[in-house]
Structure formats: structure tokens, C-alpha cells
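WARN no homologs supplied; continuing
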Amino acid sequence: MKKILYSILALIPLSSLAQSDSLELNFSVLISEVKGDLNKDQLEDKVIVTQDTIDNYAPFSLQIFFAQTDGTFKLTVSSTNVIEAQYQNGKGEYKEPGGFESVTAKKGVITFRYQTLKGYFEHKFRFQNENFELIGFTQFHETAEEKTTVDFNLTNGRYITKTFHTEKETTTIHKEKKLIRPLPRLQDIESIFDYIY
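OK structure emitted
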């Protein structure tokens, strides 16, 4: 009985150490860190993207920090959903071509860019109404017959599709109005693919 008890006690520090290590490994790989004034206070804020490369799906974590006047940074919002995991079905399964490419912070707008098999798409967020709201969506898709660009300004609802027909060398432009209210908030997004318009 004593041998069993000693064995259990001996394993406790090892198991707690293993848990500690696994927690430290989560989102420990820095993918991107960009700076820009996001809340119009003349201070350089930070957007940090990290990844958990140990996890079977290799998810990403997004953190947005507002700069403080004393030189420190305050975490404003974080999400593990706004950037889709690298492996949708796990590392051993088929992976769709493309995926998360970059994040930028310019002129108060955070832009997330994804590569696809034959193009790309972007989501643009701006800090307004005390939240980061989705204000723009852009998509480009190319085939042998045509090149299509979608530009959706969610703020005013302007939705423009431009299609260049390769063989005829002509461009078709279609404009419509799509109002989405309230605007989607970054922290509420469960999958960025729900917001491909």
C-alpha cells in the first residue's frame, strides 16, 4: 500500500509540470506583430497574432493592445476565432490550399488577408462604438475565363462586383445595396468564413 502511495505522490509533480508545459506551449509561436494608432489617440497600438503549433488544428490567437500614456499596453480584445485554424480537419487530414496570410494596421483599420486556391479575400475592422466592427470585405477570384473582384463597404452598404471577361476583354460592373445592421463585432465572430459575402 505504501509503495502505491509513494508512486502516486511521485507522479504528482511530474503531471503538474507537464500541464504547466502544455499551457506555456499554447499560442507560443509569434506569427505577426504590427503597430498602428487604432483608437485615434496618437499612440501606437499593437496587434499580435500567435499560433499553437502543438495543437492538432494549429489554431491562431489574436490580441489587440491599446497603448497607454505611461508606455504600457492594455489588452482590449482577444479572439481565437477571427483567424481560422491552419488545419480545419487536423494535421493528418486534407488541407484546403491557402489560408491566413497577413494582418496589417493602417489608418485605424485592421485588415486580415487570406489566400485561396485562385485568389484572396480580406476583412477590415475599425474601432468604433467602443468595439472593433467589420466595415469592409474584399474578394478576388480568378479563372481561365474571368477575374472577379468584390468590394463591400459595410458602413454604407455599397456592394460592387467587377468581372473582367478574359476572352472578350470586357468588364462588367454590378452595383447593389446590402445593409447589415448591427455591424459584426470582432469578438462575436465564431468563424470568419461566416462573413464571406
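Confidence is low (pLDDT under 50) at residues 1-25.
OK
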